[in-house]
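Below is how a single chain appears once it has passed through the pipeline. First comes the sequence as given, then the structure the pipeline wrote out for it. We keep one example in the README because the format questions we get most often are answered faster by looking than by reading.
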Amino acid sequence: MSLHAPENLPAFEPRSLQFDPQVERVRAELLKIDPDGARTASVIRTSIDMLYNGRYTGRFRWDQLFKTEKTHAGTLLEINLQREFEFEDGDSMDFKIAGIDIDCKYSQKSGSWMIPPEAVGHLCLLVWFNDQSSRWELGVVRIDERILSYGKNRDLKRTIRSDAREAISWIRRDAPLPENVLLKLSDDDIDAIFVKLAGKRRGQKRVNELFRRAQGRLVSRTAIETAGMQDDPLRRVRYNGGARTDLQGEGIVIFGEYKLHQAMARDLGLPVPGKGEFVSARLTPYREHVGLGRVSLDGSDWMLASAEDPVVTAPTIPKG
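Resulting structure:
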């Protein structure tokens, strides 16, 4: 709850803030250690998945979390960022980047970072993400009284004024977050996986249904853990009792992170699985002049099947 604030704030003047070399040093360091943002995106993805704890809870949506868990998101993200990049502990702030004290602030809503009084005069690393839209952003700003709202909550925290957000030095805006495949499936698909196949003993069937319904999408190890809710999730994918064996009769293959699998997925025009990722697809014998990619398996050529193609037993994919 905000305390009383004046109705009219004087207009913010960007030129009133001088060039800040420390902001630029921190920005340059973050771009140096993570030039494409992939490491930061991975840390965010890991932090979200840790909150869901899908292997034990079956949760995969933000609205399934308790309020206390959502509140804990910022602390967990801060810890995981420090572990990933080995930032030094700060003197009075959370940690140091390029030798500069910096506070780390996360907000569930972009632009709504809550700034405590002790952060005034210091740098803040501002983080936002949204799992539903698979987007995130990261910026650095010097906390100055002139960029803060007048209204305070009961902890005396304030937000950055909407007309002063151009003071933020952005490192990433609207950047892609590794996708949570379970959020991209339809309600019918989710019902078929989690409701119709509810029960601890049906973990393998849920994993099979996930690969059946998520064809052509990258499926992470975490998604498999969430669907299976059992230990050793990768065993649920393998041949000899896993999804690869169970779905082979339906013409469905599952490519993983092996280089051969990646090459075949690329040749078929599928998303290429990275570390701990998989992609499933139904195959059919290759036909000339159809303009689709092909792969050679079990001595024959194969291509992606269409809805009209009859179901045939899929070839076996070697590890490569």
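The chain has a mean pLDDT of 92.

See the next section for the split statistics.
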